[in-house]
Write a structure and sequence with these properties.
Elements lengths: L14 H22 L5 H7 L6 E2 L3 E2 L4 E4 L5 E6 L5 E5 L4 E5 L5 E5 L5 E6 L4 E6 L3 E6 L5 E5 L1 E2 L2 E2 L6 E3 L5 E5 L14 E5 L5 E5 L5 E6 L5 E6 L4 E9 L2 E2 L3 E5 L14 E3 L5 E5 L2 E5 L5 E5 L7 E5 L5 E6 L2 E6 L10
Antiparallel strand pairs: 1-2, 3-29, 4-5, 5-6, 6-7, 8-9, 9-10, 10-11, 12-13, 14-15, 15-16, 16-17, 18-19, 19-20, 20-21, 20-22, 23-24, 24-25, 25-26, 27-28, 28-29
């Protein structure tokens, strides 16, 4: 911080003289500050918003967490597509953004109706959970939007949040409280399955704030991440859209002095490990529920997803920034 010391103005000066002297002194001080205060470069800002590498038990070391671009409002939903692009959302701004193969970030779609979770759905489609109560498919070439579902039992959803598509083309998605009208249109928080032929099933409504959702690589396990509970849930998939009783896979490590903070989004690698975004960073958990390490982030992460040519880049959406980190194991994508 620069401290400026101004000398007292002599009382003997006339009002006009005193005002001129004060103005000159202030102008000189401001000019000195502008010359003496260095302009922070973008590279300096990026270096500041970097987290060091970590070693994930049994997997290997990561690279540092690096900022790609900041100054968004609230980022979410990173989704990799076959053309080498990464799509993500800026929820309050009502935008879907695209990080192209050339490294430039541009607005892909606006308004997005508060799109949150995204996933490539095959056939040139980007699937999106819109928090204004819809699950949609967006044509990546024409940007035309098709509503897949906007209600359950003739009542709009609360605020669709996150999703995962299976090999049959069915979509599992969550519908918690966040950004929902009051009272909640559905009256409860739940997660659902929409089959490829349009059949809709409510799978569960007993979790508090079900948020992130993902399938294991063999699609025999469905993971649901509550945001207001430390207990991360796993459900056996008996057939597409049919699940058995859930069990607690893992209890998240908690920030000091806090309890029962939950997760947000998640990604799965090719070995079936879970990368869960939490207040402490991205907690990496094995398929049998063992904590392998925590990838710390400069900002509280909301979601993450794999991409890059070898699928070993984990993209992290964290509050105002989009980040990336190299990881030792390639990610698993539901659609390529």
């Amino acid at each position: 911080m620069h401290v400026i010391h101004l000398k007292p103005v002599p009382n003997g000066l006339a009002y006009g003289q005193r005002r001129s002297l004060i103005a000159f002194t202030c102008f000189s001080a401001l000019a000195w500050v502008s010359v003496s205060t260095p302009v922070r470069s973008q590279s300096a800002v990026k270096a500041e918003r970097t987290s060091p590498p970590v070693t994930l038990e049994g997997l290997g070391p990561t690279g540092p967490v690096e900022l790609i671009q900041g100054e968004f409002q609230f980022t979410e939903g990173p989704a990799w597509t076959p053309d080498g692009s990464l799509y993500f959302t800026d929820i309050p701004a009502e935008k879907i953004m695209r990080l192209g193969p050339g490294g430039q970030i541009k607005t892909f779609l606006e308004p997005s109706l508060h799109a949150n979770g995204l996933m490539y759905g095959g056939k040139g489609r980007l699937l999106a959970c819109q928090m204004d109560g819809r699950l949609v498919a967006i044509d990546l070439k024409t940007k035309k939007t098709k509503v897949l579902t906007d209600s359950f039992e003739d009542t709009r959803y609360n605020a669709c949040n996150d999703l995962v598509i299976d090999r049959q083309g069915g979509i599992y998605f969550t519908d918690p409280r966040y950004r929902a009208p009051e009272p909640w249109p559905q009256g409860k928080e739940a997660f659902y399955y929409l089959s490829a032929d349009g059949k809709l099933t409510r799978l569960g409504d007993d979790l508090t704030a079900p948020n992130g959702i993902a399938l294991s690589p063999d699609e025999k396990t469905l993971y649901v991440i509550p945001s207001m509970s430390s207990k991360m849930m796993a459900y056996p998939v008996q057939s597409p859209g049919q699940i058995g009783d859930g069990h607690v896979l893992f209890e998240l490590k908690q920030p000091e002095g806090k309890r029962d903070t939950g997760g947000d989004g998640l990604a799965i690698d090719s070995q079936g490990n879970l990368y869960i975004t939490t207040a402490l960073g991205v907690q990496v958990v094995s398929p049998d529920g063992k904590l392998l390490g925590i990838i710390r982030c400069p900002e509280h992460p909301a979601n993450c997803g794999f991409g890059g040519e070898d699928l070993k880049t984990l993209f992290i959406t964290a509050r105002t920034g989009l980040y990336q980190v190299r990881v030792p194991v390639a990610g698993h994508l539901q659609r390529r």
